[in-house]
Specification:
Blueprint: E1 5-10, E2 14-20, E3 26-33, E4 77-80, E5 91-99, E6 106-114, E7 120-129, E8 134-143, E9 149-161, E10 167-173, E11 181-186, E12 190-195, E13 206-214, E14 228-234, E15 239-245, E16 251-257, E17 264-266, E18 272-273, E19 276-282, H1 286-301, E20 312-314, H2 316-319, H3 325-338, E21 342-345, H4 376-386, E22 390-395, E23 399-400, H5 405-409, E24 429-430, H6 436-452, E25 458-461, H7 481-499, E26 505-507, E27 525-526, H8 534-544, E28 554-557, H9 565-572, E29 576-579, H10 588-610, E30 612-617, E31 626-632, E32 638-645, E33 668-674, E34 687-692, H11 693-698, E35 711-718
Parallel strand pairs: 20-21, 20-29, 21-22, 22-25, 25-26, 26-27, 28-29
Antiparallel strand pairs: 1-2, 2-3, 4-9, 5-6, 6-7, 7-8, 8-18, 8-19, 9-16, 9-17, 10-11, 10-13, 12-15, 13-14, 14-19, 15-16, 23-24, 30-31, 31-32, 32-35, 33-34, 33-35
The protein binds (2R,3S,4R,5S)-2-(hydroxymethyl)piperidine-3,4,5-triol (DGJ).
(2R,3S,4R,5S)-2-(hydroxymethyl)piperidine-3,4,5-triol binds next to loops.
GO molecular function: alpha-galactosidase activity
Binding site for substrate: 176, 346-347, 426, 460-464, 508, 530
Domain Glycosyl hydrolase family 36 C-terminal: 627-703
Length: 721
């Protein structure tokens, strides 16, 4: 080959550029703002393979680092060939770029690589979403050797950042009811790893989504400036993301399935396809980053992302397992009185030999409990219909209680070590989703619910266990279990979505233990946390909002926390609103308030779900004690603005103006306070007849938040509307 070849993978504002040199080595020379003239990418200097103070191998910036030959750093792909040779070399062969849609807005680039010695090939895939500025990267691995090749590490992406001097990583850790706690660190020489080994989910302890800021920490006070990169791995199981500052002080990023206990035996001529790593880069700060994820997810990833969602009343926190037909019938009437779209029956409706009366028995036995519900689910659906609302149901199909008929009848369907004692997570074990018989069983649970009850309008799919004692009684290769579990789960969900494309399904996992863009291709919404304390939720939802669109967040008003009903409701309204409390225990004002909110929400939900979110004041900001966010519709003629008191220092409150964002400077807006609690002192309510977007965004406006007004929601409307 002659001079260097450049393969730019571009979106409207960003570029990732791969250079292929004369030796057919391929490296990442640029990630950042797209250059006006693609020819200019050729000017970017290369890292020569030189010893002492340089790139010793010529591989530091490889776009997919192979193992065992001259590489000295962390590989992206590590294999042992059929002849036991533990080395890999990859050379560029060719590439292709083609549009995947009529309007050229989604472009797929494929780069074909080959080992010069072995019949072993890799294809790097890059799907660029032009308008949303998101790049989705994955690889596929194949060979034609005499026997299986052992894949010891098989990453989705390997990126290289060489134009910056300092790298700041914000990652999100947590635990049950404490999801998405951000922590920002400066990356130092060596490797920082984000990973999980939980098996059934990616996050809980550490989310697979992160932010990187270049040369300076992220500017959370001003989200419109700074160079920021955001990445997320679309995989619902063990993952590993490595950030390596190499000896040249550049950043190598490798993301993919966690190789932990997961050596994969790849048979000849079978393709191994990795999950996608998704990323975006912005030179205009964090706000742009979120807009891109939100737009992309609604348009391309989440089912019915641009459509509607149902408000609901859930019975979990009002009954737990203790209910019968009469109690549920009365809750269904409450749901109608409240004004929601749907009643959701939670855990506890199944199991006969081992009734599901608490969380230690019955899970896995998906037959209606005859004592609690003698007339079955059909009766409850008819009650919902009589009350003019829809009906949904809870399941947790991937898991089993040892005290269940399922466990008695199919011990070989359960993940557990044959010679060690069982260890439980919430008294349950995990079914072996790598077993096709189990896949069929799980598919059937959902399919049967829908075929028996075609009017069923909603599913809540829970997942309350992690994998302990990882061992499959049937899988030929134990080291395939973690990968095959997730693949088995995706296969079922894929079949279900083909058969039931539009039914709303909530992704639940006792909280945010399972939120990633792999599984979100099958779910319309997710449960961010069991923690529904209003104050906590301001923070939790704030952090999810960096990556996930508002329409996907299920926020229920419950009795958690000390905040007023108004505060809890206002916070829940910043997402898909639901309720999980005893409606009959609400006093007159509380009920009136909630009914009015639901009425207004029906009018405003589309702005909140489909509009652009601007985070105005961070709850983490020192000495401000408030959080403020605004949702603006595409036409910029309507907005909903939420502000909360999040501290209780002396005189804490808004104490002055907040500058708004996203409005049309030329538009005159009317400002009206909504979600006003009955009996509130009318003199403090904010209302303005006409004020320009320019004024609101340049000077600002005080929503008057203080200890008496701890939560304020303002609606902005173009006066001409
Ligand atoms: C955990 C979920 O987060 C709750 O909402 C509820 O559905 C329970 N599981 C039921 O067991």
């Amino acid at each position: 080959m002659g001079a260097n070849l450049h393969i730019p993978i571009e979106t409207e504002c960003t570029a990732l550029v791969i250079r292929v040199n004369q030796q057919c080595d391929f490296s990442t020379v640029y990630i950042g703002k797209r250059l006006a003239n693609p020819k200019d990418y050729e000017l970017i200097p290369s890292f020569e393979a030189k010893q002492f103070n340089g790139d010793y191998t010529g591989l530091y910036s490889s776009a997919y680092t192979p193992n065992g030959t001259r590489n000295l750093l962390e590989p992206a792909l590590q294999v042992i060939h059929a002849d036991q040779n533990p080395s890999l070399d990859l050379k560029y062969v060719s590439h292709q770029q083609k549009s995947l849609d009529q309007s050229n807005e989604v472009i797929l680039t494929k780069i074909y690589l080959k080992d010069p010695v072995y019949p072993f090939e890799v294809i790097l895939h890059y799907r660029a979403y032009y308008k949303e500025n998101i790049i989705e990267q994955w690889s596929s691995i194949q060979h034609n050797e005499t026997d299986s090749v052992r894949l010891q590490k098989y990453s989705s992406a390997n990126l290289y950042f060489s134009t910056f001097h300092q790298y700041y990583l914000t990652h999100f850790h947590g635990a049950w009811a404490r999801e998405m706690i951000p922590e920002e660190i400066q990356l130092t020489a060596g490797i920082k790893v984000l990973d999980t080994k939980l098996g059934t989910r990616a996050d809980l302890f550490q989310a697979p989504s992160f932010l990187l800021s270049f040369n300076q920490p992220i500017n959370y006070e001003n989200e419109d400036s700074g160079e920021v990169f955001a990445g997320t791995l679309a995989w619902t199981g063990n993952y590993k993301i490595e950030f390596e500052i190499d000896s040249m002080r550049n950043l190598r990023l490798i993301a993919g399935i966690n190789p932990y206990a997961s050596e994969y035996f790849l048979i000849p001529n079978k393709e191994f396809v990795t999950p996608s790593f998704l990323f975006t880069y912005s030179s205009q700060g964090l706000s742009t980053i979120s807009h891109r994820w939100h737009q992309w997810a609604r348009k391309y990833r989440v089912p019915d992302g641009q459509g509607n969602r149902l408000t609901l009343l859930n019975n979990w926190e009002s009954t737990y397992f203790d209910f019968d037909e009469a109690k549920l019938t009365s809750l269904i009437q409450d749901a109608r009185q409240l004004g929601v779209d749907l009643f959701l029956l939670d855990d506890g409706w199944f199991g006969n030999k081992y009734p599901r009366d608490n969380d230690s028995a019955g899970l896995g036995d998906w037959q209606v409990n005859r004592r609690k519900l003698p007339n079955g689910i059909g009766y409850l659906i008819s009650q919902a219909q009589a009350n003019n609302i829809q009906f949904g149901i809870w399941i947790e199909p991937e898991m089993v209680n040892p005290r269940s008929e399922l466990y008695e009848n199919h011990p070989d369907w359960v993940i557990k070590l044959p010679n060690r004692s069982e260890y439980y997570f919430r008294n349950q074990l995990v079914l072996d989703m790598s077993n096709p018989q189990v896949q069929e069983f799980v598919f059937d649970i959902v399919d049967r619910l829908f075929t028996d009850h075609p009017q069923l309008a909603y599913i809540k799919w829970d997942c309350n266990a992690v994998i302990y004692n990882a061992y499959s009684p049937t899988n030929l290769h134990q080291s395939h279990l973690y990968v095959d579990y997730v693949r088995g789960l995706y296969d079922i969900l894929d079949r279900l979505r083909k058969k039931y494309p539009s039914v709303p399904i909530m992704l639940c996992s006792g909280g945010g233990g399972r939120v990633d863009y792999g599984i979100l291709q099958y779910f319309t919404e997710f449960w961010p946390s069991d923690n529904t304390d209003g104050l906590e939720r301001v923070f939790i939802q704030w952090n999810y909002s960096f990556f996930f669109p508002t329409i996907t967040l299920c926020n229920h008003v419950t009795n958690w926390g000390k905040q007023s009903l108004k505060f809890r409701t206002d916070v829940a309204m910043m997402g898909k609103l639901g309720y999980d409390l005893v409606v009959s225990k609400l006093n007159e004002n509380e009920l009136k308030f909630s009914q009015q909110v639901l009425h207004d929400y029906a009018r405003l939900k589309s702005i909140i779900w489909h509009g652009r979110l601007f985070r105005l004041v961070s709850p983490y900001r020192l000495n401000r004690d408030i959080a403020s966010l605004i949702y603006v519709n595409a036409e910029q003629d309507q907005a909903v603005w939420f502000t909360y008191l999040v501290g209780n220092r002396y005189l804490a409150g808004s104490n002055g103006v907040i500058r708004l964002k996203g409005l049309n400077p030329l538009t005159m807006y009317k400002i009206q306070e909504i979600n006003i609690y009955p009996g509130t002192d009318q003199s403090t309510i904010v209302s303005v007849q006409s004020i320009s977007g320019d004024y609101l965004m340049t000077y600002g406006f005080d929503p008057v938040v203080d200890v008496q007004r701890a939560s304020v929601v303002l609606q902005l409307t173009n006066v001409m509307n």
